[in-house]
């Protein structure tokens, strides 16, 4: 059902900072078939550590009989630049040196990432995207892409994201980068550099993805006589180990910087005015217990976007609720589709 592809862009690509990638590759997946009218495209921007196969990490929303059904839709998801699931990232070979980039990989912003996505879109001859959907870091990118290419997208669903990354969110990311930088191996030109530090970084991240009530409900020790080796301790260690098996510290470090870069007003003007220029219907979804991207941020987006709808998911699971609360998400998105169909 899922078709995996690679797109190779062989021209120099200049980043917002002014650095240049000699070339890049985007790994991307498609599910379903593009119809004759080419009006059934669903484009997904994945979250921080996600990949291009939405059936892997969002099976509650995508698949046969689900909200986004490949029998009806042509679903596209590309692995973002800087990641480690097939797209060009810090461990990719630099054509100029014939060795991995490592620490010499250029700083990426969300604008750089969606710029590469748009090159892929043009390569695929997709003129219109019926529905752009993004969550977390991917939600930031989807919003940025909507603003930069307003003629392409017909509707936006933005989940747990923001117009500008908050000092609170940046502080979480900087703390995680500090953990990586404290790893003595971080300065090495090695695929395993910073890996131990990244384990701690991921444990810190879990505190922002969940919240006090989540841990109280899921990591409470039934044994009141325990003095050590608490369940919450082993959970934190487990999350770090699990991340180390599928990610690398370089991608982690660079993508956290991309998240920090989010500011739709940079070089454009007031954020409220920029949001006011969006003409397409937009659904902004907040998660009630999200402490990383609090619901105030999605309400702000909805308040200043003309044709906006706001929905809130009641979830125990904080920011991670967008991966877990599939039933609620399906309900609010269907309600949104019904609303915009009557406009």
From TrEMBL:
Biological process annotations from GO: homoserine metabolic process; methionine biosynthetic process
Residues annotated for substrate binding in this entry: 202, 320
Keywords: Acyltransferase, Amino-acid biosynthesis, Cytoplasm, Methionine biosynthesis, Transferase
Pathways per UniProt: Amino-acid biosynthesis; L-methionine biosynthesis via de novo pathway; O-acetyl-L-homoserine from L-homoserine: step 1/1
Subcellular location: Cytoplasm
InterPro entries per record: AB_hydrolase_1 (IPR000073), AB_hydrolase_fold (IPR029058), HAT_MetX-like (IPR008220)
Lipoprotein among keywords: no
Name under which the protein is recorded: Homoserine O-acetyltransferase
The species this protein was found in: Persicobacter diffluens
Source lineage: Bacteria, Pseudomonadati, Bacteroidota, Cytophagia, Cytophagales
